[in-house]
Amino acid sequence: MPQKARLRIHGYGSVELKYTTEYLVDLEHAYESIFHFGSLLDDARRIPRYLKPWDFFDLMVWPQRIIRGGRSDTVRVNIPHSEQLVLARTQLNSPGFWEFLGALNPLEVIRQYLNDRHERRKDKDYRESAEERRLILENLKLENEVMSERVRLARDLGATNSDLALMLDQLIYQPLRALDRHQDRGVIDGAEITVVDEDDKASE
Known about the structure:
By secondary structure, the chain is an alpha+beta fold. The protein is 54% helix and 17% strand. α1 packs across α6 (145-156). It is globular.
């Protein structure tokens, strides 16, 4: 069973309801997509090599089946109930926070992305170009242990650069980028994470 963690995302009260709803939907989608990314490659690792596991995914087809209109229709089916994202606690002062319970790996990817972007936004003169955004996401892939491990596994299974670009865009980059607007609106800021130990789990 994946290690559990609590992700606390700092935010603010007095936010219009529609923006709060959009934020929660986008965060859940990012979590589910990143979780699914890891699960797909973990499953592939268990397929006998003579079956050509990377061909099994048919990467030119399955991403479109997973993502429809920017929202996941089928990802949740592949996430065990015990690993789904849970809103554990909120404190909607200004500032306040949102605290979520879920699997450590996708929550850590989200935490790193939000914090990196939060730091860049402190520079009022900073404007994020397409090239800068590409480099930021490349750094996320290289620096995050979870992401880099999965990318290495995909390459070992025969994934090409084109295969990886498609999968990472569909399941990692697009869902994470959907969170940008919530930082830009001031709904959320940075984040911190706490690993949940066995005693914490027992008290849930």
